[in-house]
Design brief:
three-stranded antiparallel beta sheet, globular
Length: 141
Amino acid sequence: MENYSKPPIGRYLSGISKSLLHALQNRLIHLDIDRNFYALMLIEEGQGKITQQELSDLLESDKVSVVRIIDYLSNKGYVERVKEPTDRRKHGLALTEKAKIELPEIKQAMEDVIQAAFSGLTAKNITELYNTLSVIKKNLI
């Protein structure tokens, strides 16, 4: 048997991310969306005042990708763009009633999937993991 080197950290993290999303999608298969769950949570926190630019900053994603996310969620009936009364060029993002009804289930599913992923880890392990990932991220900026 050949000795293969460890996969690059990016590939490893990407695989974990795909596994987490797949588990979440399986839990929420009955909904008519299959992605962008975290964006919904951020929009909820913004209480109708978060702009696309602010969402882009929070997601650490480019504007074009965020427009696609908002278009997807809007077409599915989860998010609406609301004109800012003080600046017609700006649009806030707000959840629809449909999203408000389904968001508690989405949050619970996310929590359950994360708990399953962290099974067997202590609170200290989890804290160390987040700290380590934070250092790695800062090192690359």
